[in-house]
Design brief:
Layout: H1 3-24, H2 33-43, H3 47-67, H4 77-94, H5 101-126, H6 135-179
Helix pairs in contact: 1-3, 2-3, 2-4, 2-6, 3-4, 4-5, 5-6
């Protein structure tokens, strides 16, 4: 099977998995969307598909949340910032040159923190009534998000380990099979 077709199958499976996980774990937010963004940037050779995967995963989950009336799937302009944040995490993944435990853990933590700062800044900038529009208001907004960062770190580390670990295992197995 060629690389593009394989990437499409991987992408479709991850998009469905992410959407379902986001819906069934709402509001705990135990989902692989940020890990998929990072994984896409590192592994998917077709850069258009690398950007498309996390966007489709987030969009599919937003549609499901809305359609199943679990929560508002579409909640305003700050949501656009979260989609852009996912794209920027994918760009961050382009910088990982080697898949190793240390690199995956480091980039995963960086992705979580990057998304945290960007998404909380979106809330600060676009939710008119939420926070005073000053440096102190921004710090207050960031502080309000701190309870969520622990879950985000653990979730992103877990799903990054699953994605990159599975990918490494499968590619090594296929390489051994090809040599045999």
């Amino acid at each position: 099977m060629n690389s593009t077709k394989t990437n499409i199958y991987i992408g479709a499976a991850l998009i469905i998995f992410a959407a379902v996980m986001k819906v069934i774990t709402f509001p705990m937010s135990f989902n692989p969307i940020i890990a998929i963004s990072l994984f896409s940037g590192v592994v998917i050779s077709d850069k258009k598909l690398a950007f498309l995967m996390p966007l489709l995963a987030m969009f599919a989950s937003d549609i499901l949340l809305e359609a199943l009336q679990i929560a508002p799937g579409f909640y305003g302009i700050s949501q656009i910032g979260n989609y852009v944040s996912l794209l920027l995490v994918t760009v961050l993944g382009f910088g990982m040159k080697k898949i190793s435990f240390v690199h995956v853990a480091g980039f995963s933590i960086a992705s979580t923190l990057f998304f945290f700062f960007l998404s909380n800044s979106n809330v600060f900038l676009f939710n008119a009534v939420a926070y005073e529009k000053s440096f102190n208001g921004w710090l207050t907004c960031l502080a309000a998000g701190i309870p969520f960062i622990k879950n985000g770190l653990l979730t992103d580390l877990f799903f990054s380990a699953v994605l990159f670990g599975s990918y490494s295992f499968i590619t090594k197995s296929l390489a051994k099979k090809a040599l045999a």
